[in-house]
């Protein structure tokens, strides 16, 4: 790998993986203080492969030239360099991360045909098969998931799940996720269906909980889209307010039980506010059960 300098105006930014418009204020301060420790990476055609944030920082600082690593690699290897830079250095949103991981997997497995392939099947497994899969995963050291786990600190299972979501999700499912209409857990369920069926089932689960979505998807798998519609029609939807209440209630009851069991007392400055909130909670709980009795 050759190290030299290039004029910033000569460097081309063609890669779709480059993250140019990001906050680099902290990076600029570091470069002003100690200089640019790691050169940016370009190819023989002066195309930027890695170091977009460093490129942006030195451009903002008014540099004319910048130290560069020049790599002479094939097209796929160059793309993998850009992906690796994103995975290791740049904060990505969920969809960007999944796209980078899946494309990185494709390239890595193409360049290294003998390595362990990431399993893209998404069938329901028995407890015994799940255990065997976990044991096999522990022994995996050369798959894309394994080497990426070492670089990023993400677990192999998290990486595999992200890859599956990008590989198996239909275009409409990805769009729904990008618009916030579908979360990762719902996506994990719907990608058990083929992409055509996902398109049909998506409108049925977009406003459903993961548990409800799972029931609709199971119906689609066993009985087709008509069965999915029937299951969706028979569900009694849980209002959003109740959904938002479930987890906090569990935490409140757990902590309150511990306080009562251990007879924990607090006389600090926040006691008055806590007592006020507790009294308001008690009043609302009393009103809630009164409402249930009146509607019985």
TrEMBL record:
Q: Where is the ParB-like N-terminal domain?
A: 4-87
Which Gene Ontology terms describe the biological processes this protein takes part in?
A: chromosome segregation; positive regulation of sporulation resulting in formation of a cellular spore
> Could you tell me the keywords of this UniProt record?
Coiled coil
Give start-end ranges for the coiled-coil region(s): 115-142
Q: Name one Pfam family in it.
A: ParB_N
InterPro entries in alphabetical order: Chromosome_partition/occlusion, ParB/Sulfiredoxin_sf, ParB_N
Domain of life, per UniProt, equals: Bacteria
One GO CC annotation, please?
A: chromosome
Q: Which PANTHER family match?
A: CHROMOSOME-PARTITIONING PROTEIN PARB-RELATED
Protein name listed in UniProt: ParB-like N-terminal domain-containing protein
What is the species of this protein?
Answer: uncultured Thiotrichaceae bacterium
């Amino acid at each position: 790998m050759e190290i030299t300098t290039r004029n910033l105006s000569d460097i081309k930014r063609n890669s779709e993986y480059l993250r140019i418009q990001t906050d680099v204020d902290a990076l600029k301060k570091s470069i002003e203080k100690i200089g640019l420790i790691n050169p940016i990476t370009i190819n023989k055609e002066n195309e930027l492969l890695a170091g977009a944030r460093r490129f942006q920082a030195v451009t903002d600082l008014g540099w004319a030239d910048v130290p560069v690593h020049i790599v002479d690699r094939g097209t796929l290897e160059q793309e993998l360099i850009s992906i690796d830079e994103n995975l290791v250095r740049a904060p990505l949103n969920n969809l960007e991360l999944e796209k980078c991981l899946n494309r990185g997997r494709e390239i890595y497995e193409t360049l290294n045909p003998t390595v362990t392939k990431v399993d893209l099947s998404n069938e329901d497994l028995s407890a015994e098969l799940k255990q065997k899969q976990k044991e096999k995963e522990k022994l995996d050291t050369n798959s894309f998931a394994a080497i990426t786990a070492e670089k990023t600190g993400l677990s192999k299972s998290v990486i595999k799940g992200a890859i599956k979501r990008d590989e198996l999700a239909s275009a409409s499912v990805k769009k729904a996720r990008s618009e916030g209409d579908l979360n990762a857990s719902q996506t994990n369920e719907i990608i058990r269906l083929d992409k055509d069926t996902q398109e049909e089932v998506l409108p049925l689960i977009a406003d459903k909980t993961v548990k409800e979505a799972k029931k609709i998807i199971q119906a689609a798998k066993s009985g087709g889209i008509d069965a999915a519609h029937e299951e969706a029609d028979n569900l009694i939807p849980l209002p959003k307010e109740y959904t938002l209440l479930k987890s906090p209630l569990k935490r409140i009851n757990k902590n309150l039980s511990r306080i009562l069991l251990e007879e924990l007392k607090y006389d600090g400055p926040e006691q008055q506010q806590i007592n006020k909130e507790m009294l308001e909670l008690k009043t609302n709980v009393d009103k809630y059960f009164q409402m249930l009795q009146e509607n019985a």
